[in-house]
TrEMBL record:
Leader peptide range in chain numbering: none
Location(s), subcellular: Cell membrane
Name of this chain's protein: Phosphate-starvation-inducible E-like protein
InterPro entries named in the record: P_starv_induced_PsiE-like (IPR020948)
Record-level GO cellular component terms: plasma membrane
Membrane topology: Multi-pass membrane protein
Keywords, ordered alphabetically: Cell membrane, Membrane, Transmembrane, Transmembrane helix
Keyword Membrane: yes
Transmembrane spans: 6-27, 71-90
Length: 96
């Protein structure tokens, strides 16, 4: 008799982790909407950028490099660069 050491394989663990991250992003988005839209004097672009960065981080974490073509990787990299530059410019314009 052989004994199974792991109940789940790596792909199942990544799927579960991806779903967990999706729930965390949803909660973050709901908190952001409640926090920013109740206080109208605060600008909303910082929260939108931070939620977008969290969402693209989730995509990168659960990404299976064996099944993704190079053009998709270039697209994801350009999204990361654009969000990073946008966040940097936003922080720089606020003087923080």
């Amino acid at each position: 008799m052989t004994r199974e050491y792991f109940l789940l394989d790596v792909t199942q663990l990544l799927d579960i982790f991806g779903l967990f991250m999706l729930v965390v992003i949803g909660i973050e988005l709901l908190e952001t909407i409640m926090k920013t839209y109740i206080t109208q004097e605060q600008s909303h672009y910082e929260e939108v950028l931070s939620v977008a960065i969290i969402a693209i981080a989730r995509k990168v974490i659960i990404l299976d490099l064996k099944e993704v073509d190079s053009l998709s990787l270039i697209g994801i990299a350009s999204i990361i660069i654009a969000l990073t530059v946008g966040y940097f410019l936003m922080k720089r314009s606020r003087g923080v």
